[in-house]
Amino acid sequence: MELKERFLKYVGFDTQSDPESETYPSTAKQLILLNYLAEEMKELGLEDVEVDANGYAMGTIPATPGYEDRPVIGFISHVDTSPDMSGADIHPRIIENYDGGDICLNEQLTMTLADFPELAFFKGHTLITTDGTTLLGADDKAGVAEIMTAAEYLMKHPEVKHGRIRIGFTPDEEIGKGVDFFDVKHFGATFAYTVDGGFEGELEYENFNAASARIEVQGRNIHPGYAKDKMINALQVVNELNNLLPPCQRPEHTEGYEGFYHLISIRGEVENASSEYIIRDHSRVKFEEKKRYLQAVTALLTGKYGEGVIKLTLKDQYYNMREMVEPYPEVIDKAFQAMEKAGVTPIVRPIRGGTDGARLSYMGLPCPNLFTGGMNFHGKYEYCSLNTMQKAMQTILNLIELWGK
What we know:
GO terms for molecular function: metallopeptidase activity; tripeptide aminopeptidase activity; zinc ion binding. Its cofactor is Zn(2+). Keywords: Aminopeptidase, Cytoplasm, Hydrolase, Metal-binding, Metalloprotease, Protease, Zinc. The chain is an alpha+beta fold. It has helices spanning 3-11, 29-44, 138-156, 184-187, 234-244, 284-305, 322-325, 329-341, 356-362, 386-404; strands spanning 47-51, 57-61, 73-78, 93-95, 103-104, 110-111, 127-129, 165-170, 191-195, 202-204, 209-218, 260-268, 272-281, 310-318, 347-348, 369-370, 374-375, 383-385. The protein has two domains: 3-206 and 320-404, Zn peptidases (Aminopeptidase), CATH 3.40.630.10; 209-318, Alpha-Beta Plaits (2-Layer Sandwich), CATH 3.30.70.360. It has ten helices and 18 strands. Strands 1-2-8-3-9-16-10-15 form an eight-stranded mixed β-sheet, with helices on one face. α3 (138-156) crosses α10.
C-alpha cells in the first residue's frame, strides 16, 4: 500500500481520546484501529504481533540473518486524536502541486498565508488538508502511516541489512496517558524514536517539564443584599488567584525555552468553583519555582479567606527528556545522518509540549522525536505534506540501515 493511500485509510478511523474517561484506553474506538494495525502487521509478515490488555499494538521486523547482534531499535507513534476537535467523518482534501497561496477549505473558511506563513515552504508539494469542519488526524496518523509503510518496504526488500526492529502504537497520548502501562522491558528496544513531530526536519530531544494544577474553592453564598463581610464568592477567588500569576508567563506571551502557566478551564458558581492549569518550563529549576510560586499564592489567599476555602492539587506529568537522551549521542547523530541522507535539513528545537518519548526516556528507553510532515495539529487548519511524509518515511529507513552497520 502506498503512503498516501495508507494515511487516508487511517484518518478514516475515529480515534478521539477522552480525558474524562476512567478506562484504558479512554475510548474503545481507538482499539478498532489498533487491532487493524496488528492485523496489517501480520499480513506484512511481522513477528511477535500483539495487542495487549492495555491496547498497545506491537510487532517485530526480524533481523537480517547475521545481524542479530545489532542494537534493537524501536519506532513508536500514537493512534488517538485530540479531544479538542472532532475526529469523526473526516473528509480530506488533496491539493496537488500547491501554488503557495491561500487555501480555501470551504465556503466559510480559508487558511491564509498571512495567518500561516510557513505554508510558503510547501509550494510545489502535495498537501492533504481538512474540509474545515474537523481536524485531519495527521497527529499522529502521519507517523503511524510512515512507520507502517517503512515496515512494508523492509519486508519486501530483504537486501536491506538491519538488526531487529520493534514497532509500537499507543493510545491516549493526547490526554497525557500514552505510556501509562507501556512495558519497556517487553518492548525490548535499546533505543527508540517517536515519529510524532511536525515541520520537515524537526528533531526534538528536549521538551517541557510538565505539571497539572487544580484549584478548588469552597465559597459561602449569602444573599447579595446582606453579603457584606459574610460572602465568599468562589468565582471571584478563582479569578483573584489567576490575577496573581504573572501575565507575561502565559502561552500567548512566550516562545522558545520560555515556560508558562496556562489556564485551561474555570467552572463553578458562587458556592463552589474550580480552575485548572498546566505548568510548563524547559528548565527544571524554573519549573520547580513555578510550582512553588503557585503554592505561595494559594497560601496567601488561604491567609485572607481562611483554612478550608482553597485546595491546590499539583501533579507532575513528565520531565525534560534531554538529560536521559544526551548520554547516548549516537541516537541523535544517526538521526542527523538519516535526515541528511533523505535530503532533509535537520532542525533541532525544543518541543513546546511533550511526547510519549519524554516519559519513555525516563522509563529507560531513550526516545527522541522525529518529524512527520503534519502541521497545525488539533484543529480544522491541520494539514500535512505528502512530500515531507515521504521524506520522514525515508528517514526511518535510513535510520534502520545506519543502526544495522
